[in-house]
Structures are given as structure tokens and as C-alpha cells.
Amino acid sequence: MSLSEVYGGLVSAEQIRSANGVDAENPLASGESLSGDELTRIAEEYGVTFGNLEIINGLGQPQIDPGDILAIPLAACSSANLNWYNESLIVPNGPYALTANNCIKCGCRPTDLSLECSPSGIVDKCSHLQCKDSNIFIGERHENHTTSGCNVIACIYRGHLGGKIFRW
């Protein structure tokens, strides 16, 4: 049985050769195995540490074998240390989460793994999106540069309760 047949014909022999770098210059003999992937390369690809991959998967060696299944930890942001009202949110790096009756969209900033929230724009009837005594809305920030320094004003989402959105 060919490798293509093992996978139910979902991939062609050519796709398997291409994915594994097998060609006329680098042939693979029948019965020969490809060497396993390196954890260091996988860690780099997914932005995690080699040590975390090794610990999470209980591995004692840097090389894995073809067919091995690995758990890859994803970086995520949490609201746990933000003192939000009546809400706890964890968002993986990449996608976003909707909260406050879909009025607020929060994403995880990849540079420092901090939550960044703004109006979602998908619900028309959202109140309390503008910060008190200012012209800015949740997620916005303004910098005022002067000769004596820089003044930063930001409108930050702080959770929700009973239809009310808290901001600071």
C-alpha cells in the first residue's frame, strides 16, 4: 500500500514528495524513513520556547518521529490582572473575542501579549462607548507632545455588568 493510499487518496504522491523535499536530487528508497522534525524549528515556527514544547509533550530528546502528535502552547492574553468588573476574558494571540453583548471586540497584541479592546462595530445599539469628559472612545488614545513632555489620554475597556459598559 502506498503512502497516498494510507491517507485515503486525499493527497497525491506528488504532494507527499513536495512536502517532504523528495525529488530526483533527493530520492527516497522504498522502505526508507524520513528523519524526524526538530523541536527547535517547530518552536520557532509557532513562537514558543523549546523548553515549553519539551515539557508539555514529555519529551526527553530534541527530535520527534514522523507521525508524532505534539501539543503546541499558544500565547494568550488575560484580563485577570486588569481589575475588570464582572468579567474574565482569555484571548489567544491572533483571533479576537466579542464581549459586552457583542459591543466590544478584544484581541491579544502579539508584541507584549496585552489585551486591546475597541468597539466591535457589529451591533448598532451600544451605549457607554465614549469615555466620560472626553471625545475619545474605547480603544482610542491620543498623545499630546509638548516641550515639557508627552501627555497620553486613553479610553480603556474595564468590563460590563447589566448592560452597562465600564471604561476608564
Describe the structure using short key phrases.
single chain, 168 residues, alpha+beta, three-stranded antiparallel beta sheet, two-stranded antiparallel ribbon, 9 strands, elongated
Folded structure, characterized:
Residues 35-73 form the LysM domain. This is LysM domain-containing protein. The protein is of the alpha+beta class and 168 residues long. Helix content is 16%, strand content 26%. It has four helices and nine strands. The strands form four sheets. The chain has a three-stranded antiparallel sheet, with no helix packed on it. The protein has a two-stranded antiparallel sheet with strand order 1-2. Strands 6-7 form a two-stranded antiparallel ribbon. A hairpin with a 4-residue loop joins strand 4 and strand 5 (114-119). The protein is elongated.
Mean pLDDT metric:
80
Radius of gyration: 25 Å
What structural category arises from helix and sheet content? alpha+beta
What is the strand content? 25-35%
Low-confidence stretches at least 5 residues in length (pLDDT < 50)? none
Number of strands: 9
Largest sheet, described in full? 3 strands, antiparallel
Give the neighbour order of strands across the main sheet.
Answer: 3-4-5
Series of secondary-structure elements, N-terminal to C-terminal: HHHHEEEEEEEEE
Which shape, going by the Cα principal axes?
Answer: elongated
Please report the number of helical segments: 4
What's the helical proportion of residues? 10-25%
End-to-end distance: 64 Å
